[in-house]
Specification:
The protein is an alpha/beta fold and about 675 residues long. It has four domains: about 325 residues, TIM Barrel (Alpha-Beta Barrel); about 40 residues, no CATH class; about 200 residues, Rossmann fold (3-Layer(aba) Sandwich); about 55 residues, Golgi alpha-mannosidase II (Immunoglobulin-like). It contains 18 helices and 28 strands. The strands form five sheets. A ten-stranded mixed sheet has the order 11-10-12-13-20-19-18-15-16-21, with helices on both faces. Strands 5-4-3-2-1-9-8-7-6 form a nine-stranded parallel sheet, covered by helices on one side. Strands 22-23-28-25-26 form a five-stranded antiparallel sheet, with helices on one face. The longest helix is centred in the middle third of the chain and has 29 residues. It is globular and about 75 Å long. The chain starts with 10 loop residues before the first helix and ends in a 9-residue tail after the last strand.
């Protein structure tokens, strides 16, 4: 193997090379079609404005039909054809779906569920991440691909694997058990340390030999929660090892080509903070459900998360649907204009383009009724016309590529706390992290207040407000960092059942929430889990009444003041929402789950106190977000309503999409979009 200097491509070099133009394209599967279709494909791609396709994602069986027998001739031809039409390639390593021969020769490579069921070929992702036969075969394929295409002029991006963990996020086989033990030995060194971390004095679980340790397979009742937490960590790391194994080969041969893999929305099994730090570009697959009235809000949350995973740098919407998907019980179509609207929403929140699954709708296989850029009915169709129109429109948006999004509010998000929170044995089985995150995010979205997400060890200094919907698991260093942030003048809001356990899922003693008790100025005596559908009341210090549900607490003030009190239950009169001055800043505590109106009240109170204003005031249903590049400002307005609406302008503005100069009103059609830049003065109230 020729030795090339081993170095990581700089992030700025990634963006300069990859994002010369706004990206437009999708997954392309020429192996599903006779070659005479390829010529029509590239012609239509040019018509639609496609400039990037993802190639080879599920092509392992075509590339290596038998062990060690490779067929790259067809891939050579399509790569050359795409290059001839000036279409760049995001080349996949094809390792997401092993060919049938791997299972035949190595049945031990197939994954096993927690109850001992082996999963068989006939679908995809049928591999154990820790299996050596799978890893060896994958390495060989990736090396051949890297050797063959490292100098190909169409290659601009490597696509490693595909949607890691989507179907098999954990394997419980014996080989995984051995890998888990090795992982634990590296983490704890000694069995004594492991026994302390896992609290094995409980239920006679103390280990005397490493070989006694198994994955948390099906047990008579609750498995050890500390063991389960480490198992989540291990499973994320095991898949990450597969990713990094392939990356090492690609960086050896093609250090000039950036590397990505496609994340999924708010995906619990993988610690995306850790993953994002090891790739050159964050990419996302996002499929908002047209049947859900607030689907665009959850999409925005995920777009903000992706931007934050890349530390504010550009990211890429790698997959979305032109219309309906195939995997929901009821697969609704996107309304005319909705695909354009949701595509622009991703760009507004930092994506450097939009891509789809897939280019040409399959005529066979499990996803044949999943929509595509070229539908079954061909180009005489609404979908095709919308695809072409969007491609033409995106060509005008290259001016946005250097711009970035700024936020003054951050939401803390921690995968390890998420894993620990949702293990069994809690006061309520209905407490879910994503629900709590959405409860905080949605009133901010409604106010057009831009949000970043931060990890527990992230830098908080640029934010006026840090929101912590739930941080059940907290390290001492994180608690101290938050205390320093507030003492220095920051504002923090912490949701209920936070600061309860340490990194081993052991309860912090000294009164709940011990790590935050001094900063919050409260002590929690008792958790009160509420049954589904039961509502309780609170009243605020300014006389507003709201419903609450899911959770409440018996809370004692230790320096804080009550902003709201409970009005029902034996805890009537006890504080429900508190505020505590700590150093130069303010710490709030929310001890229940408020209804939407109550969360709106709390968010408004906190933002007003911290001086956080919307980027722009709009009617309900119209989203506003700002992208900035030095002195230039672009205000995105997105109408998520099925009816037209007028938005008042603070100053004359030019619409980048229509080319019109607007004086006092921006008229948005149903699902309409405008990108405004001030004609003379600033449009935005603040940002």
């Amino acid at each position: 193997m020729e030795h090339i200097p081993h170095y990581r491509l700089s992030r700025e070099a990634v963006y300069t090379r990859l994002f010369e133009h706004m990206t437009y394209g999708g997954d392309y599967y020429p192996e599903q079609w006779p070659e005479e279709v390829w010529q029509e494909d590239v012609r239509l791609m040019r018509e639609a404005g496609v400039n990037l396709v993802s190639l080879g994602i599920f092509a392992w069986a075509r590339l290596e039909p038998q062990p060690g027998q490779y067929d790259f001739d067809w891939l050579d031809r399509i790569m050359d054809l795409l290059h001839a039409y000036d279409i760049r390639v995001n080349l996949a390593t094809a390792t997401a779906s092993p060919p049938p021969w791997l299972a035949k020769h190595h049945p031990e490579s197939l994954p096993v569920t927690h109850d001992g069921t082996r999963l068989w070929p006939g679908s995809r992702q049928h591999y154990c991440p820790s299996n050596q036969a799978y890893r060896t075969a994958a390495q060989a394929l990736v090396q051949r691909l890297a050797e063959r295409y490292r100098h190909h002029p169409a290659l601009v991006l490597w696509h490693v694997g595909n949607e890691y963990g989507c179907h098999v996020s954990a394997c419980y086989c014996d080989e995984s058990a051995a890998a888990f033990r090795r992982w634990l030995q590296q983490r704890y060194t000694t069995l004594d340390a492991l026994n302390r971390a896992w609290g094995t004095a409980f239920w006679s679980q103390q280990y005397g030999d490493w070989e006694e340790i198994l994955p948390p397979r099906r047990t008579p009742t609750f498995s050890n929660p500390s063991q389960q937490l480490d198992w989540h960590r291990f499973c994320s790391d095991a898949l990450l090892e597969c990713f990094e194994m392939e990356c090492a080969i690609l960086r050896e041969y093609t250090p000039h080509i950036p590397i990505t893999t496609n994340f999924m929305h708010a995906f619990k099994p993988l610690n995306y903070w850790k993953w994002a730090a090891r790739e050159d570009l964050v990419a996302l697959d996002m499929y908002p459900d047209p049947a859900e009235a607030d689907a665009h809000v959850y999409a925005a949350l995920n777009y903000d998360l992706m931007r934050s995973l890349g530390q504010g740098r550009p990211w890429l919407l790698m997959e979305q649907a032109t219309s309906q998907v195939n995997w929901r019980p009821y697969n609704f179509v996107k309304q005319p204009g909705q695909m354009r609207l949701w595509s622009h929403q991703a760009i507004a929140r930092g994506s450097q383009g939009v891509m789809f699954f897939q280019w040409r709708q399959s005529c066979a296989g499990a996803e044949k009724f999943h929509s595509a850029m070229v539908p079954h009915v061909g180009t005489n169709s609404r979908i095709w016309r919308e695809v072409v129109a969007l491609g033409q429109e995106l060509r005008r948006l290259d001016i946005l590529l250097p711009s970035r999004i700024q936020a003054k509010v951050a939401i803390m998000w921690d995968w390890e706390s998420w894993w620990a929170l949702e293990l069994e044995g809690k006061p309520s089985c209905s407490l879910r992290q994503i629900d709590q995150v959405r409860a905080f995010y949605e009133p901010l979205f409604a106010r057009n207040i831009t949000v970043d997400f931060v990890p527990p060890d992230g830098d908080l200094q640029s934010y006026r407000v840090v929101l912590i919907p739930n941080l059940y698991l907290v390290r001492e260093t994180t608690a101290q960092r938050l205390a320093d942030y507030v003492a220095g003048g920051g504002t923090v809001v912490i949701g209920f059942f936070s600061g309860i356990v340490d990194e081993h899922d052991h309860v912090w003693l000294g009164g709940y929430p011990a790590p935050f008790r001094r900063m919050l100025g409260v002590r929690i005596e008792e958790f009160i889990a509420l049954p589904p559908q039961q509502h309780i009341g609170i009243i605020t210090d300014d006389g507003n009444s709201y419903n609450a549900m899911l959770w409440s607490e018996v809370l004692e003030l230790e320096g804080a003041i009550a902003l709201a009190q409970y009005t029902t239950g034996f805890y009537a009169g006890y504080p429900a929402v508190t505020q505590n001055r700590f150093g130069q800043g303010i710490a709030y505590y929310l001890s229940t789950q408020l209804e939407a109106a109550g969360m709106s009240w709390l968010v408004q109170h906190v933002c007003d106190y911290a001086g956080v204003q919307p980027v722009y005031s709009t009617p309900p249903g119209v989203e506003a977000i700002v992208r900035q590049d030095g002195q230039r400002t672009w205000l995105y307005l997105l109408n998520h309503r099925a009816t037209s609406i007028d938005v008042a302008l603070n100053a004359p503005a030019d619409d980048l999409l229509s080319g019109q100069r607007l004086a006092t009103i921006c008229h948005l059609e149903p699902y309409g979009v405008a990108i405004l830049t001030p004609s003379h003065s600033s449009l935005t109230d603040s940002f």
